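Q: Hi! First time doing this. I have a protein sequence and I read that you can turn it into a structure. Is that right? Here it is:
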Amino acid sequence: MTDELRSIDELRSICDDHGIFLRREAIALGYNDRALDRARKAGQIHRVRHGAYVFWEQWQPADEQARHLLRARAVLRTVRTEVALSHTTALIVMAAPLWDLPLVDVHLTRLDGRAGRREAGIAQHRGRILPGDVTEIGGIPVTSPVRTALDLTRISDVEHSLVPLDWLLHTKALVKPDLHARAAAMNLSPGTLATDLVIRLADGRLESAGESRSHHMFWRGGLPKAEPQFEVHDEWGEVVARVDFAWPEYGVFLEFDGKVKYEKLRKEGESVLDVVLREKKREETICRLTGWRCIRIVWADLYRPADTVAYIRGVLAGGPVH
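A: Yes, that's right. Below is the predicted 3D structure, encoded as structure tokens:
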């Protein structure tokens, strides 16, 4: 084994629990910048950010969120002040679902109250830190679910904020009274105009990003309020099904057919066709018991909200289902 290959192997001994090692640690091991650069160009290591590396076999298969977390952990090892991961980055640590939120920058909140400086790939925030605003997940300092949810409303629009906020409510990571209480302390902060609206629209009964976006679409389109996760009972009063949304007064229910939903419904040994046929039978049972009609929408329908809202409004008015 050559010296260079032996050195590469030795670098594994200085990796932290997340597979990250720092340039200064490699230098202390006897490496130099030229050798690190050769290893990077050879596809053996990857520079996560200035002064921090991981081995390529860890970086290459990682998805966008996993790569973001690697960058975030590298930032925590190199930052020179006390910080907590926050905003979108904290949501990834919490395993919250994200919809179309940019992951270019690692978001940090300084805990010393000082203004953060802008660096490539890092968005430093400052704000009033209250007791309970910071916690740890897996040994990583992050802003609390309540603080994270409210911070998100300051950098994102209503629809993008609702997807993770609904999930945090659904998983009981936070409750609305805590959101209202903490938001009251942020009234004079910039970027909080949409916060109250997001809190009012958020609903912990919603179980997926597709349902959250559908709920937002109904509100934005001015449709009558739908009841999420509506329970359907049989002749003996037993719950036989739950539908994603229902308008009982109009005799209509709606199901959002997303990929995640069908994966969740798929039983061991079943094909996708088996799930579709079982869902069809379930729909027929619901229609028989209630006398209602079923609307089904898919992810693509959310990208043409005006047409989809017009279609739903037509069905609610007695128009055809297609």
